[in-house]
Amino acid sequence: MAMELGELYRLGVRMGMENDPRPRDEIESELHRVAKRYDALKGKERERFDKDGLWNPYPDSRLLYGDEGREVNGILWGIDIGTGEIVLADRLREKGRKIDLVMGHHPRGRARNTFADALQLLSYMMEEEGVPGNVAEGVMAPRIREVHNSTITENNEQCVDAARLLDMPLMCLHSCTDVLVQRYIENLMAEKEPKRVEDVIEALLDIPEIDHMAKLSNPPEVRTGEKGRKAGKIMVKMSGGTAGPKDMYEKLADAGVGTFICMHMPEAHLEEARKHHINVVISGHMGSDSLGINLLADEVEARGVEVIPCSGLVRVRRK
Length: 319
Ligand SMILES: [Fe+2]
Ligand SMILES: [Fe+2]
Fold this sequence. Notes:
The protein is 50% helix and 13% strand. It has 14 helices and 11 strands. Strands 2-6-5-4-11 form a 5-stranded mixed β-sheet, with helices on both faces. A 4-stranded mixed β-sheet has the order 7-10-9-8, sandwiched between helices. A two-stranded antiparallel ribbon has the order 1-3. The structure holds fe (ii) ion (2 copies). The site of one fe (ii) ion has 3 residues, from loops.
C-alpha cells in the first residue's frame, strides 16, 4: 500500500479542519472570502494567486515540491527541514531506504511567506475565552504585521531549491498538526481538571512525547506563577502560528484566564503575563510539536506508508 502525494496533503488538511478550534461553518466562511478575492482578480494577479488557499485554510501548510500524483511509500519526517534533511533523505535513499517525501513541520518556502496569516486563528481562540472579537483582532493586527515583516525577509526557498535539485518531494504541515495538539491537550485538561499549576505539569507529563523530552532535561516548566498556585481557568495555546502579541495577556486576564499553557514564550511576553498574574506553563516545544505530527503520522502509517523520524521528531505510535 502507498499513498499519492496529493492524497497525503489533503489528509493532513482534512484532519486539521476536523480538529480546528473554529467550527466548520467559520472555516467555510473564511474559504468563501478567499474565493471571493480570487474571483475578483484578473490577468497576472489571478495567475499569481495561491490557489491552494481555495480549499486549504492553513496558509502555513503547503506541498512545496512534487506532483500530487507521485507515489509515497516512505517519508523522512522532521520538525525543522533544511537543505541538510533533503541531502540526508537522498543519502538514505542511496543506502536503500524507501523515501519518496521529506515532510517538515515549521513552514518553509511559500508557506513561510504567508505564515503570519496563520496567526489569525489566535484571534478566534481569544474570542472563545471571552475577549470581544474587535479587541482580539485589534490586539493581533500589529503582531501579524511584525511576523510578516520578519518572515518575508528570510531566504525561504533555500531547502525547496535543494529538493528540486535532488527531485525529492517536499511538504510542510504546520497549523494542520498544531490544531491536533490543541485539541488533544484541551481534552486532557478537561478530563483531568487540574486544580493547581503542579497538577497541570503532572497532566502534561502523562503525554509520552513530553515525558521523553523531560528525560532529555527539557521538561514542562512553570515560567510565571508558582507550582502551588491555583490553576483557575486554563487556556491551551498550541496552535495559532507562533507567540501572540504581548498585550494579549491583559485581555486574557480580564476575560478570566488563570493559567496559559503554550509550547514556548519569549521573555518579554512573560513579563506581561506576570504583571497580570497569569500562570504560564511551557509544555515544551519539540515534545508538543511531535504529539501533533504523531497523531497524523499514525493515520499515514495505517495507510501503509513508512514514517522515518528525523530533526527532533519524537515518534510515538498510538495505533
Ligand atoms: Fe507547531
Ligand atoms: Fe513549533
